[in-house]
């Protein structure tokens, strides 16, 4: 039995369907990410699991118990908020003790657990400070400690790293993953950043306009996208509509090929039997450091994006410039068929 | 070159002020300072001096001098002491009732009411400010008079109003000054990020716990700001007592009664509410709340 069972959940705001009839199982101990653009319904689902929003239809079960209409304070889940939601008038320690206090944990025990939790995020020196005296990263950690100290079955994280700068965000990604593994708590993480989702998650749930597009491991959603949206949202994809694919590639569905799986070589040069090639003209060649991004105008009449990793210095390998005739080559097994 | 000098010449006043910051400061502050020092502080100072003057008991003629009798009277005559305490009690009650009404109303308006209802309530709170002060006192008088609306309404239940007395004075003053408490409190509650309410209930707190652990501490500055108005305005009032208090006397009633007969006593007695307000502001300042007014 899954830890959280969501069935046919729906929620509208006015006449906008924010969440449109979704079902999802979340397993105990997994790190699952709800990924999607803003307005795709991912945060609304999280808020319904937390109990901040009531659903219009459907049900949510936690550990077999129906929690669909329970208030937030009666659910064994805790939330880390996007802007941290630390209480500005309370010290760091008082913030972390808050949930223990509402559970009537005795004062000494409360202080002990809070200090442990603060130590686990390495912020012992801040216990007496007020939230406005902390940096963004420190506030983030305290918000995490405040939720973890309650040892919830499930921790809900609503874009918790969104406000941090890139370097700090990457550090926190590693740390969050470690905390999740060590504590064995189920994490439901909301983000719009596909790289962040892939880096941390056991499974990714891709949302689009209130619906689930695909659920799978990072590899699955990247390599076997089930919809055009998924193919385009995770990384970059060259998508051939079903007509083009049928005509030129002999495929029966829409197909997608990743830019990094395509290599360029001079027209007429040899390719392997297991490979496909098409010819075209380089429209643009953009050097972006680690990679060079080529935009080709192919003879299919579709544009193709190709990413070449710059393993050599510029000009020391076969690089092309705008206007060159080239042949784009990929292995047939790298084609992803998109059923929908 | 000529265009440049034309440009400069076109703003002689602005460029003069830019080069002379002191002149700028003086011209900015001269009018308000004349008002504050000339009208406000000087008249307060004159009042203080008058409190030490003598009055002829037969002719009521005031003559300059220096005696402490007026002050001694204010602090020793039992009727004066009782009136001071009564006035303080009334002002504190009015403030307390305003807080008790404003906090739940503010929470309802800011967090629960639909926008249209919120706007109606905001108008309902501010609307009495447009009516004249005396009009509102007379309105309360009409409601609580012997054959008034209150007794008429409550008659089937066998309840009769207390008649003109201290409770009605408190009620009238609460009615008069409530907007000054309700508006800052409501504004402060609106400014609390909604996430804090979510976070509190997420960590197991029910409504009342959230109110006294999160909402009240965060709106203390607004409550203090509101109470400065409700407290000091109640302290200085005497028309509410005159028209709705029956025999109730407040500090203001006694000052008003003495202002022609014995100005020095009136002046000495008016130092009492000033002292109360100063003490109140000092206490409020210690909480750090005045900085956010």
What does this structure look like?
Chain A is of the alpha+beta class and 340 residues long. Helices cover 27% and strands 32% of the residues of chain A. Chain A has helices spanning 42-50, 92-102, 107-120, 136-148, 166-183, 194-200, 218-223, 228-233, 242-249; strands spanning 4-13, 16-26, 31-35, 57-62, 65-66, 77-80, 154-158, 186-191, 203-208, 211-216, 238-240, 254-257, 263-265, 275-287, 291-298, 303-309, 325-331, 336-338. In chain A, the strands form four sheets. In chain A, strands 6-7-8-3-9-10 form a six-stranded mixed sheet, with helices on both faces. In chain A, strands 13-17-14-15-16 form a five-stranded antiparallel sheet, with no helix packed on it. Chain A is elongated and about 80 Å long. In chain A, 39% of the residues are buried. The mean pLDDT of chain A is 92. By secondary structure, chain B is mainly alpha-helical. Chain B has two domains: 1-52, no CATH class; 73-292, Orthogonal Bundle (MetI-like fold), CATH 1.10.3720. Chain B has helices at residues 2-9, 12-19, 21-50, 69-76, 78-112, 115-126, 133-144, 149-154, 166-190, 194-202, 207-236, 239-244, 251-261, 263-286; strands at 54-55, 62-63. Chain B has a two-stranded antiparallel ribbon. In chain B, strand 1 and strand 2 form a beta hairpin. In chain B, helix 3 packs across helix 14, helix 7 packs across helix 9 (166-190) and helix 9 packs across helix 11 (207-236). Chain B starts with a helix and ends in a 7-residue tail after the last helix. The chains are: A alpha+beta (340), B mainly alpha (293). At the A-B interface, helix 2 of A face helix 10 and helix 11 of B.
